[in-house]
Design a protein that fits this description.
This protein is of the alpha/beta class. The chain is built from 10 helices and 12 strands. The longest helix is centred in the last third of the chain and has 16 residues. The protein is globular and about 55 Å long.
């Protein structure tokens, strides 16, 4: 009885906890009109008591339709940076703007309708492949589902399965490989046709040839008006981006095209050389 009472008390505490981030001041009529993204003097730390910022004085503008690559060492705050865009966190200082509006001006639903995020860690649910893809757009036609799967380089492996798009996925998608799960999650994001598409190391489990095919698709006319922000560990995944930024210890320490950074940025040079050596050693 004592244990049960303690558990009930804790459950009530969780339910009664006020979220640190809310959209009470958001305009229900405001929707994301375009995919421009801007960081104005943005700094961030996870708690007010923390001594050091995780992100420090970030100033960055991404134009509608641009492809931006982000690279940096583990712990350099790459994911934290992009998580400020759909308001998974709020900036401690400065402003984040999407479509020319401060993200705090939107209701969560409207902001996140305009911003799709695909994570390295995949999230699939029990149901068919088609149902998992259609989660991005519940009223999508079969043709739209197939087109999204083709863009994510998933159509071929789906059609190799006995039931095709009607194939049932186990809990968490455990009946398909890691790379296949990532491609299905990308298809789910693609079908939504967001204004901003964030790929957070979401091709880490696919081979380099498939990665190149996905990048080629992102360069196609179907994605020309969508802003693409790609976090990657492999330089090959972002080397054809319009611009690449290098994050180091929560600060932007380089920005430019692949060719410019190879020539002028020491951190990028080191990453590039080490990855080239790794390929040659295989």
């Amino acid at each position: 009885m004592i244990v049960a009472r303690a558990s009930i008390t804790r459950v009530n505490e969780v339910f009664n906890e006020e979220p640190a981030i809310n959209d009470n001041d958001g305009d229900p009529e405001l929707t994301v009109k375009n995919g421009s993204v801007e960081f104005r003097n943005v700094s961030f730390k996870y708690s007010e008591e923390a001594e050091k910022n995780i992100l420090e004085n970030i100033n960055l503008t991404v134009k509608e339709g641009e492809m931006l690559g982000i690279i940096g060492a583990t712990g350099s705050a790459k994911s934290t940076l992009v998580n400020l865009i759909p308001r998974l966190y709020d900036a401690t200082e400065g402003e984040v703007l999407v479509g020319g509006e401060n993200v705090k001006h939107y209701k969560f639903k409207n902001l996140r309708e305009g911003v799709s995020v695909v994570l390295q860690q995949t999230m699939l649910f029990s149901g068919t492949i088609a149902e998992n893809i259609r989660w991005g757009k519940m009223d999508a036609t079969d043709e739209e589902v197939i087109a999204a799967a083709k863009a994510a380089q998933a159509h071929d492996f789906i059609m190799e399965k006995e039931n095709g798009y009607d194939t049932e996925l186990g809990h968490g998608g455990n009946t398909v490989s890691g790379g296949q799960r990532q491609r299905l999650c990308m298809a789910r994001a693609f079908i939504k046709k967001p204004k901003v598409l964030i790929l957070d190391d979401s091709t880490s489990a696919v081979d380099t040839a498939t990665d190149a095919q996905v990048r080629a698709e992102l360069r196609s006319d179907a994605f020309k008006d969508i802003t693409k922000i790609i976090i990657a560990q492999r330089i090959t995944s972002i080397m054809d981006a319009d611009r690449i930024i290098i994050l180091d210890d929560g600060k932007i320490c380089g920005m430019g095209t692949h060719d410019e950074l190879v020539k002028n940025n020491e951190i990028y040079q080191e990453i590039f050389v080490s990855q080239q050596e790794g390929v040659l050693a295989q």
